[in-house]
Design goal:
This protein folds into two domains: about 5-195 and about 225-300, Spore Coat Polysaccharide Biosynthesis Protein SpsA, Chain A; about 305-425, no CATH class. Helices cover about 50% and strands about 15% of the residues. The chain has 18 helices and ten strands. The protein has helices at about 5-10, 40-50, 70-90, 115-130, 150-160, 180-185, 195-215, 235-240, 250-260, 285-295, 305-315, 315-325, 330-340, 340-350, 355-365, 370-385, 390-400, 410-425, and strands at about 25-35, 55-65, 100-105, 140, 145-150, 170-175, 230-235, 265-275, 300, 390. The strands form two sheets. Strands 3-2-1-4-7-6-8-5 form an eight-stranded mixed beta sheet, with helices on both faces. The relative contact order is 0.12.
Length: about 425
Protein backbone atom coordinates (compact mmCIF):
# COMPACT_ATOMS: atom_id res chain seq x y z
CA UNK A 1 0.00 0.00 0.00
CA UNK A 2 1.38 3.38 -1.02
CA UNK A 3 2.40 5.78 1.75
CA UNK A 4 0.87 9.25 2.01
CA UNK A 5 3.88 10.95 0.46
CA UNK A 6 3.96 8.42 -2.37
CA UNK A 7 0.28 9.07 -3.06
CA UNK A 8 0.87 12.83 -2.96
CA UNK A 9 3.82 12.69 -5.36
CA UNK A 10 1.90 10.46 -7.74
CA UNK A 11 -1.28 12.55 -7.77
CA UNK A 12 -0.15 16.13 -7.13
CA UNK A 13 3.47 16.54 -8.20
CA UNK A 14 4.98 16.82 -11.64
CA UNK A 15 7.81 14.71 -13.08
CA UNK A 16 11.22 14.45 -11.44
CA UNK A 17 13.32 17.52 -12.26
CA UNK A 18 16.67 16.88 -10.54
CA UNK A 19 18.70 13.89 -11.67
CA UNK A 20 21.49 14.16 -9.09
CA UNK A 21 20.96 11.81 -6.17
CA UNK A 22 20.41 13.45 -2.79
CA UNK A 23 23.02 13.15 -0.07
CA UNK A 24 21.96 10.41 2.40
CA UNK A 25 22.27 12.91 5.25
CA UNK A 26 20.02 15.50 3.60
CA UNK A 27 17.58 16.98 6.13
CA UNK A 28 16.86 20.54 4.94
CA UNK A 29 16.02 21.99 1.51
CA UNK A 30 15.59 25.70 0.85
CA UNK A 31 13.23 26.46 -2.04
CA UNK A 32 13.53 29.77 -3.91
CA UNK A 33 11.03 30.89 -6.56
CA UNK A 34 12.71 33.30 -8.97
CA UNK A 35 10.86 35.45 -11.52
CA UNK A 36 12.24 38.70 -12.93
CA UNK A 37 14.86 38.92 -10.19
CA UNK A 38 18.08 40.91 -10.79
CA UNK A 39 20.11 39.64 -7.81
CA UNK A 40 19.66 35.90 -7.38
CA UNK A 41 23.41 35.45 -7.15
CA UNK A 42 23.55 37.83 -4.19
CA UNK A 43 20.91 35.78 -2.39
CA UNK A 44 22.76 32.52 -3.12
CA UNK A 45 26.10 33.99 -2.01
CA UNK A 46 24.59 34.95 1.33
CA UNK A 47 23.16 31.46 1.87
CA UNK A 48 26.47 29.84 0.91
CA UNK A 49 28.36 31.92 3.51
CA UNK A 50 26.03 30.96 6.36
CA UNK A 51 27.19 28.66 9.16
CA UNK A 52 26.80 25.04 7.97
CA UNK A 53 24.29 22.98 9.98
CA UNK A 54 25.05 19.58 11.45
CA UNK A 55 23.02 17.78 8.78
CA UNK A 56 23.20 18.19 5.01
CA UNK A 57 21.24 20.98 3.31
CA UNK A 58 20.70 22.10 -0.25
CA UNK A 59 18.92 24.76 -2.31
CA UNK A 60 16.42 24.43 -5.16
CA UNK A 61 15.89 27.54 -7.30
CA UNK A 62 12.86 27.60 -9.60
CA UNK A 63 13.46 30.24 -12.29
CA UNK A 64 9.96 30.49 -13.69
CA UNK A 65 8.03 32.28 -16.39
CA UNK A 66 5.22 31.86 -18.87
CA UNK A 67 4.18 32.96 -22.35
CA UNK A 68 2.44 35.98 -20.83
CA UNK A 69 5.80 37.44 -19.76
CA UNK A 70 7.09 40.51 -21.53
CA UNK A 71 10.34 40.29 -23.54
CA UNK A 72 12.10 42.26 -20.79
CA UNK A 73 11.05 39.75 -18.12
CA UNK A 74 12.08 36.84 -20.34
CA UNK A 75 15.51 38.44 -20.85
CA UNK A 76 15.91 39.00 -17.11
CA UNK A 77 15.06 35.37 -16.37
CA UNK A 78 17.66 34.21 -18.89
CA UNK A 79 20.27 36.64 -17.55
CA UNK A 80 19.56 35.44 -14.03
CA UNK A 81 20.08 31.83 -15.04
CA UNK A 82 23.31 32.62 -16.91
CA UNK A 83 24.70 34.61 -13.98
CA UNK A 84 23.85 31.84 -11.52
CA UNK A 85 25.47 29.20 -13.73
CA UNK A 86 28.62 31.31 -14.05
CA UNK A 87 28.75 31.90 -10.30
CA UNK A 88 28.37 28.20 -9.54
CA UNK A 89 31.08 27.26 -12.04
CA UNK A 90 33.49 29.73 -10.43
CA UNK A 91 32.67 29.18 -6.77
CA UNK A 92 31.45 25.62 -6.67
CA UNK A 93 28.73 24.44 -4.33
CA UNK A 94 31.02 24.28 -1.28
CA UNK A 95 28.99 22.68 1.53
CA UNK A 96 25.67 23.75 0.00
CA UNK A 97 24.55 22.06 -3.24
CA UNK A 98 22.42 24.39 -5.37
CA UNK A 99 20.06 23.13 -8.07
CA UNK A 100 18.86 25.54 -10.78
CA UNK A 101 15.54 24.68 -12.44
CA UNK A 102 14.48 26.66 -15.50
CA UNK A 103 10.72 26.49 -16.16
CA UNK A 104 9.86 29.35 -18.47
CA UNK A 105 6.71 27.99 -20.12
CA UNK A 106 4.35 27.44 -17.19
CA UNK A 107 0.64 27.69 -18.05
CA UNK A 108 -0.33 31.38 -17.69
CA UNK A 109 -3.42 30.48 -15.69
CA UNK A 110 -1.31 29.27 -12.76
CA UNK A 111 2.08 30.87 -13.41
CA UNK A 112 3.18 32.78 -10.34
CA UNK A 113 4.85 32.48 -6.98
CA UNK A 114 2.50 29.82 -5.60
CA UNK A 115 3.07 27.51 -8.55
CA UNK A 116 6.83 28.08 -8.42
CA UNK A 117 6.97 27.34 -4.69
CA UNK A 118 4.89 24.20 -5.23
CA UNK A 119 7.18 22.91 -7.98
CA UNK A 120 10.26 23.41 -5.82
CA UNK A 121 8.70 22.01 -2.65
CA UNK A 122 7.31 18.99 -4.45
CA UNK A 123 10.75 18.28 -5.85
CA UNK A 124 12.24 18.70 -2.39
CA UNK A 125 9.72 16.22 -0.99
CA UNK A 126 10.65 13.75 -3.72
CA UNK A 127 14.33 14.05 -2.78
CA UNK A 128 13.53 13.45 0.88
CA UNK A 129 11.46 10.43 -0.10
CA UNK A 130 14.42 9.02 -2.04
CA UNK A 131 16.41 8.75 1.20
CA UNK A 132 13.58 7.90 3.59
CA UNK A 133 13.15 11.37 5.06
CA UNK A 134 9.64 12.16 3.78
CA UNK A 135 8.44 12.59 7.37
CA UNK A 136 10.92 14.84 9.15
CA UNK A 137 12.77 16.53 6.29
CA UNK A 138 12.51 20.33 6.48
CA UNK A 139 11.07 22.36 3.59
CA UNK A 140 12.21 25.98 3.92
CA UNK A 141 10.78 28.87 1.89
CA UNK A 142 13.01 31.77 0.86
CA UNK A 143 12.98 34.40 -1.89
CA UNK A 144 15.47 35.55 -4.50
CA UNK A 145 15.47 39.14 -3.22
CA UNK A 146 16.38 38.35 0.39
CA UNK A 147 19.34 38.21 2.72
CA UNK A 148 19.53 36.32 6.01
CA UNK A 149 21.43 36.13 9.27
CA UNK A 150 24.53 33.93 9.36
CA UNK A 151 22.80 31.35 11.59
CA UNK A 152 20.01 30.76 9.06
CA UNK A 153 20.59 27.02 8.63
CA UNK A 154 21.84 26.25 12.13
CA UNK A 155 19.03 28.22 13.75
CA UNK A 156 16.31 26.50 11.74
CA UNK A 157 17.86 23.09 12.39
CA UNK A 158 18.12 23.56 16.15
CA UNK A 159 14.64 25.12 16.37
CA UNK A 160 12.96 22.05 14.91
CA UNK A 161 15.21 19.70 16.90
CA UNK A 162 14.04 21.31 20.13
CA UNK A 163 10.39 21.25 19.00
CA UNK A 164 9.84 17.76 17.58
CA UNK A 165 6.05 18.14 17.36
CA UNK A 166 5.97 21.48 15.56
CA UNK A 167 4.57 21.15 12.03
CA UNK A 168 6.05 24.48 10.93
CA UNK A 169 7.53 27.80 11.95
CA UNK A 170 7.33 31.46 11.04
CA UNK A 171 10.80 33.02 10.87
CA UNK A 172 11.54 36.54 12.11
CA UNK A 173 11.95 39.09 9.30
CA UNK A 174 13.06 42.69 9.07
CA UNK A 175 12.99 44.92 6.00
CA UNK A 176 15.90 47.37 5.59
CA UNK A 177 14.62 50.84 6.48
CA UNK A 178 17.16 53.07 4.75
CA UNK A 179 19.99 53.03 2.22
CA UNK A 180 22.56 52.37 4.95
CA UNK A 181 20.85 49.20 6.13
CA UNK A 182 20.35 48.20 2.50
CA UNK A 183 24.07 48.54 1.74
CA UNK A 184 25.09 46.73 4.92
CA UNK A 185 23.02 43.74 3.87
CA UNK A 186 24.83 43.57 0.53
CA UNK A 187 21.98 43.95 -1.92
CA UNK A 188 23.50 44.01 -5.38
CA UNK A 189 21.56 46.76 -7.10
CA UNK A 190 20.69 50.41 -6.62
CA UNK A 191 18.67 51.05 -3.46
CA UNK A 192 15.13 52.36 -3.80
CA UNK A 193 14.15 55.90 -2.85
CA UNK A 194 13.63 56.93 0.75
CA UNK A 195 9.91 57.11 0.00
CA UNK A 196 9.97 53.39 -0.69
CA UNK A 197 11.84 52.77 2.56
CA UNK A 198 9.22 54.87 4.37
CA UNK A 199 6.53 52.78 2.70
CA UNK A 200 8.05 49.49 3.81
CA UNK A 201 8.33 50.78 7.38
CA UNK A 202 4.60 51.58 7.36
CA UNK A 203 3.74 48.23 5.77
CA UNK A 204 5.84 46.16 8.18
CA UNK A 205 4.29 48.15 11.03
CA UNK A 206 0.85 47.19 9.70
CA UNK A 207 1.88 43.52 9.65
CA UNK A 208 3.26 43.60 13.18
CA UNK A 209 0.29 45.55 14.51
CA UNK A 210 -2.04 42.97 12.97
CA UNK A 211 -0.26 39.99 14.55
CA UNK A 212 0.35 41.62 17.94
CA UNK A 213 -3.32 42.64 18.17
CA UNK A 214 -4.29 39.01 17.53
CA UNK A 215 -1.92 37.81 20.25
CA UNK A 216 -3.28 40.34 22.73
CA UNK A 217 -6.87 39.20 22.25
CA UNK A 218 -5.88 35.53 22.58
CA UNK A 219 -6.41 34.46 18.97
CA UNK A 220 -4.70 31.08 18.51
CA UNK A 221 -3.46 31.62 14.94
CA UNK A 222 -1.42 34.76 15.61
CA UNK A 223 1.80 34.50 13.62
CA UNK A 224 3.30 36.08 10.53
CA UNK A 225 2.83 34.38 7.17
CA UNK A 226 5.70 35.68 5.04
CA UNK A 227 6.57 33.51 2.05
CA UNK A 228 10.30 34.16 2.31
CA UNK A 229 10.38 33.38 6.03
CA UNK A 230 8.67 30.10 6.84
CA UNK A 231 9.53 26.41 7.12
CA UNK A 232 7.53 23.18 7.52
CA UNK A 233 8.15 19.51 8.10
CA UNK A 234 7.68 17.23 5.13
CA UNK A 235 4.89 15.23 6.82
CA UNK A 236 2.89 18.41 7.42
CA UNK A 237 3.41 19.50 3.83
CA UNK A 238 1.91 16.23 2.58
CA UNK A 239 -0.91 16.09 5.12
CA UNK A 240 -2.25 19.50 4.13
CA UNK A 241 -2.02 18.83 0.42
CA UNK A 242 1.18 20.68 -0.44
CA UNK A 243 1.62 24.26 -1.54
CA UNK A 244 -1.27 25.96 -3.31
CA UNK A 245 -0.89 27.62 -6.72
CA UNK A 246 -2.18 31.06 -5.75
CA UNK A 247 -0.52 33.96 -7.50
CA UNK A 248 -0.70 36.04 -4.31
CA UNK A 249 -1.30 35.23 -0.66
CA UNK A 250 -0.04 31.69 -1.14
CA UNK A 251 1.99 31.99 2.08
CA UNK A 252 -1.01 33.02 4.22
CA UNK A 253 -3.24 30.18 3.00
CA UNK A 254 -0.44 27.62 3.23
CA UNK A 255 0.83 28.36 6.72
CA UNK A 256 -2.68 28.75 8.16
CA UNK A 257 -3.55 25.27 6.90
CA UNK A 258 -0.37 23.94 8.47
CA UNK A 259 -1.48 25.47 11.80
CA UNK A 260 -4.47 23.12 11.88
CA UNK A 261 -2.01 20.26 12.42
CA UNK A 262 -0.41 21.76 15.51
CA UNK A 263 1.08 24.96 16.88
CA UNK A 264 3.06 26.91 14.29
CA UNK A 265 6.03 28.22 16.25
CA UNK A 266 7.88 31.51 15.88
CA UNK A 267 11.62 31.41 15.26
CA UNK A 268 12.97 34.73 16.56
CA UNK A 269 16.66 33.83 16.72
CA UNK A 270 17.06 33.83 12.92
CA UNK A 271 16.32 36.82 10.69
CA UNK A 272 15.34 37.08 7.04
CA UNK A 273 15.78 40.47 5.38
CA UNK A 274 13.37 40.84 2.43
CA UNK A 275 13.95 43.55 -0.14
CA UNK A 276 11.42 46.42 -0.17
CA UNK A 277 10.52 46.86 -3.81
CA UNK A 278 7.69 48.31 -5.80
CA UNK A 279 5.77 45.66 -7.72
CA UNK A 280 2.56 45.40 -9.70
CA UNK A 281 2.73 41.64 -10.19
CA UNK A 282 0.06 40.81 -7.61
CA UNK A 283 -3.07 42.61 -6.37
CA UNK A 284 -1.95 42.71 -2.72
CA UNK A 285 1.12 42.15 -0.61
CA UNK A 286 4.38 44.03 -0.11
CA UNK A 287 4.87 45.44 -3.61
CA UNK A 288 1.26 46.60 -3.90
CA UNK A 289 1.32 48.19 -0.43
CA UNK A 290 4.48 50.15 -1.19
CA UNK A 291 3.00 51.32 -4.48
CA UNK A 292 -0.07 52.58 -2.63
CA UNK A 293 2.12 54.37 -0.10
CA UNK A 294 4.17 56.07 -2.82
CA UNK A 295 0.97 57.19 -4.53
CA UNK A 296 -0.89 58.36 -1.40
CA UNK A 297 1.79 59.10 1.18
CA UNK A 298 0.07 56.93 3.78
CA UNK A 299 -0.80 53.30 4.46
CA UNK A 300 -4.09 52.24 6.02
CA UNK A 301 -4.75 49.30 8.30
CA UNK A 302 -7.61 47.75 10.27
CA UNK A 303 -9.19 49.87 13.01
CA UNK A 304 -8.38 48.72 16.54
CA UNK A 305 -12.09 48.52 17.38
CA UNK A 306 -12.40 45.53 15.05
CA UNK A 307 -9.95 43.55 17.22
CA UNK A 308 -11.86 44.63 20.33
CA UNK A 309 -14.98 43.10 18.81
CA UNK A 310 -13.09 39.93 17.95
CA UNK A 311 -12.01 39.83 21.60
CA UNK A 312 -15.68 40.00 22.59
CA UNK A 313 -16.41 36.89 20.52
CA UNK A 314 -13.41 35.00 21.88
CA UNK A 315 -14.59 35.85 25.39
CA UNK A 316 -17.96 34.20 24.68
CA UNK A 317 -16.60 30.69 24.10
CA UNK A 318 -17.57 29.30 27.51
CA UNK A 319 -21.06 30.83 27.39
CA UNK A 320 -21.58 29.52 23.86
CA UNK A 321 -20.61 26.03 24.99
CA UNK A 322 -22.93 26.11 27.99
CA UNK A 323 -26.02 27.70 26.47
CA UNK A 324 -25.47 28.07 22.74
CA UNK A 325 -25.82 31.85 23.12
CA UNK A 326 -23.48 34.70 24.07
CA UNK A 327 -23.77 36.17 27.56
CA UNK A 328 -24.49 39.65 26.22
CA UNK A 329 -25.32 41.42 22.98
CA UNK A 330 -22.55 41.54 20.38
CA UNK A 331 -21.04 44.85 19.23
CA UNK A 332 -22.40 46.32 16.00
CA UNK A 333 -19.86 45.06 13.47
CA UNK A 334 -19.72 41.56 14.98
CA UNK A 335 -23.51 41.33 15.18
CA UNK A 336 -23.90 42.15 11.50
CA UNK A 337 -21.04 39.87 10.51
CA UNK A 338 -22.32 36.82 12.40
CA UNK A 339 -25.96 37.23 11.41
CA UNK A 340 -28.77 34.86 12.39
CA UNK A 341 -27.07 31.62 11.25
CA UNK A 342 -24.49 31.94 14.03
CA UNK A 343 -27.04 31.12 16.76
CA UNK A 344 -29.51 29.30 14.54
CA UNK A 345 -27.26 26.70 12.95
CA UNK A 346 -23.50 27.23 13.41
CA UNK A 347 -23.34 26.99 17.21
CA UNK A 348 -25.80 24.07 17.45
CA UNK A 349 -23.69 22.09 15.00
CA UNK A 350 -20.43 22.81 16.85
CA UNK A 351 -21.98 22.01 20.25
CA UNK A 352 -23.56 18.79 18.99
CA UNK A 353 -20.14 17.53 17.89
CA UNK A 354 -18.25 18.51 21.06
CA UNK A 355 -18.07 16.34 24.16
CA UNK A 356 -16.66 18.96 26.51
CA UNK A 357 -15.48 22.56 26.64
CA UNK A 358 -12.01 21.67 25.33
CA UNK A 359 -13.43 19.94 22.27
CA UNK A 360 -15.88 22.80 21.74
CA UNK A 361 -13.08 25.38 21.90
CA UNK A 362 -11.07 23.45 19.35
CA UNK A 363 -14.02 23.19 16.96
CA UNK A 364 -14.97 26.82 17.55
CA UNK A 365 -11.53 28.01 16.47
CA UNK A 366 -11.59 25.75 13.46
CA UNK A 367 -14.66 27.78 12.53
CA UNK A 368 -13.41 31.19 13.73
CA UNK A 369 -10.04 30.62 12.07
CA UNK A 370 -7.61 33.06 10.47
CA UNK A 371 -9.59 33.11 7.21
CA UNK A 372 -12.81 34.09 9.00
CA UNK A 373 -11.05 36.62 11.20
CA UNK A 374 -9.64 38.26 8.07
CA UNK A 375 -13.10 38.39 6.53
CA UNK A 376 -14.44 40.01 9.69
CA UNK A 377 -11.65 42.59 9.81
CA UNK A 378 -12.27 43.52 6.20
CA UNK A 379 -16.02 43.73 6.83
CA UNK A 380 -15.61 45.88 9.94
CA UNK A 381 -13.17 48.20 8.18
CA UNK A 382 -15.18 48.61 4.99
CA UNK A 383 -18.79 48.43 6.18
CA UNK A 384 -18.87 49.76 9.75
CA UNK A 385 -15.78 51.77 10.53
CA UNK A 386 -13.13 53.04 8.13
CA UNK A 387 -9.44 52.38 7.49
CA UNK A 388 -6.99 54.01 9.89
CA UNK A 389 -3.36 54.93 9.38
CA UNK A 390 -0.92 52.28 10.54
CA UNK A 391 0.87 54.67 12.91
CA UNK A 392 -2.39 55.68 14.62
CA UNK A 393 -3.64 52.13 15.14
CA UNK A 394 -0.24 50.90 16.31
CA UNK A 395 -0.09 53.67 18.91
CA UNK A 396 -3.62 52.88 20.12
CA UNK A 397 -2.73 49.19 20.45
CA UNK A 398 0.28 50.01 22.64
CA UNK A 399 -1.97 52.19 24.81
CA UNK A 400 -4.52 49.37 25.10
CA UNK A 401 -1.73 47.00 26.13
CA UNK A 402 -0.48 49.61 28.63
CA UNK A 403 2.93 49.56 26.97
CA UNK A 404 5.24 52.59 26.92
CA UNK A 405 5.19 54.55 23.67
CA UNK A 406 8.33 55.32 21.64
CA UNK A 407 9.76 58.82 21.65
CA UNK A 408 7.94 59.68 18.44
CA UNK A 409 4.89 58.36 16.68
CA UNK A 410 6.51 57.90 13.28
CA UNK A 411 6.41 54.54 11.55
CA UNK A 412 10.10 53.71 11.99
CA UNK A 413 10.16 54.31 15.75
CA UNK A 414 6.91 52.42 16.23
CA UNK A 415 8.17 49.56 14.07
CA UNK A 416 11.37 49.21 16.06
CA UNK A 417 9.24 49.05 19.22
CA UNK A 418 7.04 46.34 17.71
CA UNK A 419 10.07 44.36 16.57
CA UNK A 420 11.39 44.32 20.13
CA UNK A 421 8.01 43.17 21.42
CA UNK A 422 7.98 40.36 18.85
CA UNK A 423 11.36 39.08 19.95
CA UNK A 424 10.25 38.97 23.58
CA UNK A 425 7.38 36.60 22.81
Amino acid sequence: MATSHEQYLRKSAGPRLIKAKPHPGLRMIVVIPCHDEPDLVGALERLATCEPPLSQSEVIVVINGSEKDSPAVARQNQDTLDQAIDWLSECGNAWLPIHLLQLLDLPPRHAGVGQARKIGMDEALRRFADIGQAEDGLLVCYDADCRCSANYFTGIESHFTMRPDAPGTSIHFEHPLDAGEWAALGFGYTPPSQTVFDGIAAYELHLRYHVLAQKFIGFPYAFHTIGSAMAVRAWAYVKQGGMNRRQAGEDFYFLQKISWLGQVTELTGVTVYPSPRLSDRVPFGTGKAIGDYVAKGRLATYPLQAYREALWLIGQVEALWETGRPSDAPPEAMARFLGKPFIGSIMPEIRANSGDLGAFRKRFFRWFNAFRLMKFLNFARDEIYSPTEAEYSATKLLEWMKMPLPSSGNAVDLLRKFRRLKNKN
